[in-house]
Amino acid sequence: MQIVEIDGFNAHCAAKGVAREVSLYLLQGEPLAIGDFVMVHVGYAIQKMNEQEARSAWEVYDEMLAAEARGA
Fold first, then answer.
1. pLDDT grade, residue 71 (50/70/90)?
2. Which of 16, 27, 6 shows the shortest CA–CA distance to 55?
3. Pairing relation of β-strands 18-23 and 10-15?
4. Widest distance between CA atoms in the chain
5. How far apart are CA 50 and CA 68, in angstroms?
6. Integer Cα distance of 45 and 32 in angstroms
7. What 3-state class would DSSP assign to 53?
8. CA 33, 29, 53, 69: dihedral to nearest 10 degrees?
9. CATH code of residue 43
10. 5 C-beta neighbours (distance < 10 Å), count
């Protein structure tokens, strides 16, 4: 997800039309800014990513959803 707004250890993030409140607590040692990409799991940012890594992750996720829709 991409960080849209930061408020302390919380961020408003968005990806593919979905917006979420995300905790940045686990990434305290990382310099994070608006526009950065983070991998989110159960409401927590668990890894900072560059834009290419984020796009690759989205492509894999889209492929998984398409395969599921086909019944694979």
1. confident
2. 16
3. antiparallel
4. 43
5. 27
6. 11
7. helix
8. -90
9. 2.30.30.140
10. 11
| Span 27-69, pLDDT tens digits | 999 999 999 999 999 999 999 999 999 999 999 989 999 999 9
Residue 41 identity (one-letter amino acid): H
Q: How far apart are CA 10 and CA 22, in angstroms?
A: 6
Find the domain containing 30 and state its range: 2-70
Both tokens of residue 35? 């526009």
Name the band, by pLDDT with cuts 50, 70 and 90, for residue 72.
low
Other CB atoms within 10 A of residue 45 CB: 26
Residue at token pair 């834009």: 51
Tally of structural domains, the chain = 1
